[in-house]
Amino acid sequence: MIRVIVLLFLTGSFIFNEAVGQQEMIKPLPHLVQATEFLLYPPKVESWDIEVDSNNYTYFAGRSGVYRFNGYELELLKSSGELEKAPVSGLFKDPKGRIWISTVHNKLGYIEKNHFVPYRFNDKLDSINTQGIRTNWHFDQKGKLHVGINRKGYYTVSSGGKVEKILGQESGIHGIVYTFLPDGNPFIFSITQKAGRNKNLNMDLHFMEQSGEIRYLSRLKTNHPIHLPVIVKNQDGSVTLSSGQKDIVRCYFDSVVSQTSLSSNIIQLFRDNDYNLWAGTADKGVYLIKNLNCSPGEQLLDGTASAVVAQDHNGGLWVKSSGAFFYYLPRLSKKSFSKRAGQLNFDNAMRFTIGGSRVFCLNNGSDIAVFEKGSMSSLPYPQNKSIKGLGVNTEVPGIIYYDTVNSLLWAGYRGGICSWNGERWKHYRLSEKVDKEQAIIAFGVKSDGTLMFACRNALFFLSSAGKIKKIDAPSIAGNRITSLAVEPSGNVWVGTIRGVFRLDNESYHKIENPVKNIDSLNGFVRYLKSANGRIWINTGRHLLYSVHGSEVKQITYNSGEPVRILEIESSKDGDLWGRTAHQNPKIAHISIRKGEVDVELLEFDVFGDLTSEFITGTISVIDQTMFLGMKSKIYISNISELRKREPLPDVKISEFFVNNKQFQRSGFSSLSHEENAIQLKFEPISYRRNKLEFRYRLKGLDTVWQEIEHQNIQYTNLSPGEYNFQVQARVKGEEWGETDKLAFFIQTPYWQAFWFRFLVVLIFISFIGFMFYLRNRSKHRRNTLVIEKLNAEQKALRAQMNPHFIYNALSSIQELIFLDNKYEALTNIALFAKLMRKILYHSTKELITLDEEVEALDLYLKLEGLRFEGTFDYTVTICRKLRPKKQMIPPGLIQPFIENAIKHGLLNKKERGGTLSVIFNLDNDRLICKIEDNGVGRKRSTELKAKRNAEHRSFGTQSVLDRINLLNISRNNKIKLEIEDLYTYYGDPGGTRVILIIP
């Protein structure tokens, strides 16, 4: 017998059988996060109530006050007056989103910034005797406070402070009453009678109409409320309420639908955004109730007084509990198996392997966990006690592997292996010739069912006879084996610290390195996997390669960046899964799509566990469900949930300092030009426990975003202008969250302001204008005097001209009388009288019409024609373009030139036939008057005049020239005078032409 045992020992085929059973199935529970996992230290305060505000800050109320929490730090809010140092028992929100507090003495206050302000009608609450009595509170849309005093009834306090009792103990009701307020919210209160409590009578459930009518609904199992009754509204319009003890009732306003009792008194009901109902109890933890009939389902925190009381903007649920400062449920889709939930003691989940519809997990702390259809059971593994003297590590397997060909679960120990066929464990040990302290590190199975496995310095296979045989491959064994993979063809791939080797399927003698030309594959190889008809190689630098036939390809993202992965595991469909080697790791899903490798990155954010607790090789996927092994738990999640984007972190500007003085933040701040030193502090709001990075910019100064890690920004000597500070936060590698903004305006100094500069320019222009005004006024006065002087001079000239003409006319008449030519003398006197009337009339005018001037000239020429009978002929012509009765000219301006032409030109002519023509024309809106004679000319006239009377002075021509000069002084368009001498064909003087241009 001893010889047989020795023979079996030497051949390495020692076998024994052990039958074991599996334990009961366990369901996963939602993942709970404790306060210490957020704060990294146990808080020395307690939480009696929790609420979340519109900015996603979370508030905790307790004996020591109210704390505000942003996911990273707790801040104690300030209190004053009657609220100072008062223990806060409850928190609730009004319709405007304002957080209200209630103290143990039933004083109210609301949170403003980082402190709370007392309710202005707290004295009215004293008048209804609420002190020491638990109370329900609710503010409606109109600001009316509804007060439900436990066992005492229902009161209201209006926005003006008027107290009204709605229903009290005098009603005779012994029970629970609920109603719907005008804003549609349900409200509940209780009334108990002393006689009813003494007789231990059960309470009745009532519904109260807004009119005040009371409707009886049902008899309850509760005799009096120990805790506050609570009510929540259901999606179908019904309500679910607790009686203050163990009862949960679902009802409509006119009937009860269902009534259930829990095993513990109910302290809170909470309806989340997914319409799940959470029932918090006094000593049984929290129940998740998913159906409207109030049947309790999953139970959390058994043995504690716990309740879900708030939900944040990301869908996370906050739990108050006697077992901790608080608990947090980040997402219901991420569930876990853990020791904390009273399940299997997970201490480093080491390996997953898939077998059929089951997932097996090797756990260092206890049995092998078996997951099937969302539930977990445990499979005890046998202790390897058959080999003595190898230490305690020989009793625990270091690796498990499921053989899909033979439907066996294999476990590898130091010095041996064992298999599980669903009923029994079967052990195989290595022979003494092999280093028996070497642990089995890798398994593989060929298509014919041959099991391959390896330790650090040797390769083995299990023969069909159940014997372990060593493969003679010194070139491989000497390089220290790290991993093993088997192709469908039967070729065996071996990873070592010095590269990859491949053994042929037949004899295992042909050994080659098919990727020796790639430097990065000639070093340390972490993992080998055979999947999707390819060999996948994970290197020591976390790079990933695929070998497909003769093609070796490094796996990269679409950007060309190499995929870096810490481990790879294959699922039943052949896809690969692993954790990326990033600071904020993700789950990499690697698949083959249309012959090409596709890489998808998935989020599995479990509050930092992915970074701090992840153990290499603990990912498995089966039927679109992922199992993720951690240090003390195993997460389970549907793949579709992982493709949903995790909530992005918020960031809020918390403090705003101007010139080192804190300003109250508002929508827009206007600052003086001296208030140009700005300091801003901001804080993140995120409940994912990831390290965040920030970026900011100051629009009006910065054109690009600046990335930072701290939370304090300073600006000095900002120029006047409008600014908008913007800040964002993100988990590294993810998208940026929402932007928080603060706008402010720094006013321009008045001396640089547009209005001031405009005023200075306006004053300067006004001053210059005033100077010009004074100058122009002075000039105007001078011009007025000059004009008055000129007018006087013109009148004087006209006075000189008129006597001159009169003298000449009277001389002519005198000559006719002397010659006794009475008829002509009378005719001349008549014409003279008519002309004198014209001249006297014109002398009072500055301007006369051309028609009047021509009429006067015609009278004058007739007089001169009669005087010098037969001496000359004359014509007066007016062009058709002129309108004589509209055209205005200075009076008496033309007559002196006609007189001069007759007297000095025509009368000095020896022969008769003198002609005088006066032509009026229009050229460019200018009146052109041409006076032309065929007399002796100016030169001959001057000579004759000198001979006759050297002392005679002609006033007519000189007077009109002076008058023209005077008229031009006050005119923009000047009167011009041109005098031309005319000559005959032979060059003799032929007369004179005077051109008068009157604008």
TrEMBL record:
Gene Ontology cellular-component terms listed: membrane
Superkingdom, natural source: Bacteria
InterPro entries (UniProt xref): Bact_2-comp_sensor_kinase (IPR050640), HATPase_C_sf (IPR036890), Ig-like_fold (IPR013783), Sig_transdc_His_kin_internal (IPR010559), WD40/YVTN_repeat-like_dom_sf (IPR015943), Y_Y_Y (IPR011123)
Annotated TM spans: 754-774
Keywords attached to this entry: Membrane, Transmembrane, Transmembrane helix
The keyword Zinc belongs to this UniProt entry's keyword annotation: no
Gene Ontology molecular function: phosphorelay sensor kinase activity
One Pfam short name: His_kinase
Ranges of residues in domain Two component regulator three Y: 690-743
Stretches assigned to the Signal transduction histidine kinase internal region domain: 792-870
The UniProt record lists the keyword Transmembrane helix: yes
Protein name, per record: Signal transduction histidine kinase internal region domain-containing protein
Organism: Salibacter halophilus
